[in-house]
Amino acid sequence: MLGGFGICGIPENLIAALVSRGVRNLQIISNNMGIDGFGLGLMLEAGMIDSFVGSYVGENRLLESLMIAGKINVTLVPQGTLAERIRAGGAGIPAFYTPAGAGTAVADGKETRSFDGREYLLERALTADFALIKAWKGDRMGNLVYRKTARNFNPMMATAARITIAEVEQLVQPGAIEPDQVITPGIYVNRVVHGQTYEKKIERRTTREPA
Amino acid sequence: MDKRERIVRRAALELRDGYYINLGIGLPTMVANYVPPGIEVVLQSENGMLGIGPYPLAGSEDADLVNAGKETVSEVPGTAYLSSADAFAMIRGGHIDLSILGAMEVDEKGNLANWMVPGKVVKGMGGAMDLVASARRVIVAMEHTTKAGAPKILRSCTLPITGVGVVDTIITELGVIRVTPRGLVLDEISPGVTAEEVQDVTEARLIRTGA
Predict the structure, then answer these.
(1) 20 to 30 A Cα–Cα from A58, which one of A45, B55, B103, B113?
(2) In a 3-state reduction of DSSP, which class is residue A1?
(3) Quick check: B65 and B74 in contact, CB under 8 A?
(4) Alpha carbon of residue B187 to chain centroid
(5) How many CB atoms lie under 10 A from the CB of residue A144?
(6) Whole-angstrom Cα distance, residue A33 to residue A6?
């Protein structure tokens, strides 16, 4: 599992380390496949990825063309279902019902049930061997805080893997993070890595004119 | 006024004071620029933000602050950040008053298709399936025909659908169409356009108001 939405809040140092190690045959769960040339896109281009579970492929042309050619095993999941499957995985809930995707191709092969006259799909929890996530600040206890929309999938993924590795922009002393402000408590985090460099690319730079 | 601006301005008239709103990527995002005076709405972004501000001034872009289209945005007083699981709990729980999104096809049963063209385009559904399933009201804001001039409002969707019977209203540059149990009702016609002209570029039969 890799945190991030698009290339916002992705563990870019951990991705770079995986690419340099050349680990292969990975099964990836992440909302997106990064973009061509950055984020998870780098791992896809290096041929490291066997399968992908995510919600959106629109910004990675290589992934789209591999999918259409049938050269990669991709499972597309509605984004809210993906987020909740991961949350459920970390919270010990094996499955849950959601209305998202009822009556669509997403429902193929899934158990459905009607509650109060409405159709729901049974969706299974998702867990992983490793979660690679990104936080803004973290301490050696593994307590994490995120910054703005870079939070996205990171807190749920932290809870849903056997080993969670968090890379942080700022490594601080225990106590430096206000206990009230902790988003991910350290119990979920097995390793904290102080990220050395952050490129933090912007996918779509949009600005307004001064008034 | 170009047709995209006409669509967006008309869609903005559907906003009501106090609404919590989710705007889809592209054209629907522009609705935020035309919120009628005296109306206060709160924009939600499913990656994890409640209270989206305008695009930032040049030089103030923040890689950690993006909307669901991965565009840089800004905060407003009262902004809150959420995990993607919380953002979708908000959606699935029926707390979003209105979802405005684009479509490749809509049909007379209120089905819509906007996530893939088999063998050609795979974008992924992102959050669209969750949004259309659970927002209190769903408006499709789109150009009336494809770039080639083919109808997009059909008797029955031909592409893989995003949701079954979920669309309430369709707003195009030619008019406003309500999805009703009787079929599609042409509720408003844009200035300078006749009902016959709208019907000519619509595959589904349109019921005229008062007819």
Answers:
(1) B55
(2) coil
(3) yes
(4) 18
(5) 28
(6) 7
**Residues B138, B86: Cα–Cα separation, whole Å:** 21
The pLDDT tens digits of the residues spanning B164-185 come to 999 999 999 999 999 999 999 9
**Which residues, in sequence order, are bridge partners of residue A28?**
A52
The mean pLDDT value for A18-39 works out to: 95
pLDDT tens for residues B56-80? 999 999 999 999 999 999 999 999 9
Look up residue A57 and give its amino acid: V
* B 1-40 residues inside an 8 A Cβ radius of A: none
Q: What are the tens digits of pLDDT across the range A151-210?
A: 999 999 999 999 999 999 999 999 999 999 999 999 999 999 999 999 999 999 999 999
Residues in chain A: 211
How is residue A209 written in tokens?
Answer: 């004119």
| Cα(B124)–Cα(A185) distance, integer angstroms | 32
| Residue given tokens 């849950």 in the structure block | A96
Interface test with A, best of B125, B131, B167 (most A CBs within 10 A): B125
pLDDT score at B192? 95
Q: CA-nearest residue of chain B to A211? A: B57
Question: Which residues are B178's β-sheet partners?
Answer: B169, B185
Name the residue type at position B172: T
pLDDT the model gives residue B210: 60
Q: Of B56, B45, B53, which is closest to residue B21 (Cα–Cα)? A: B45
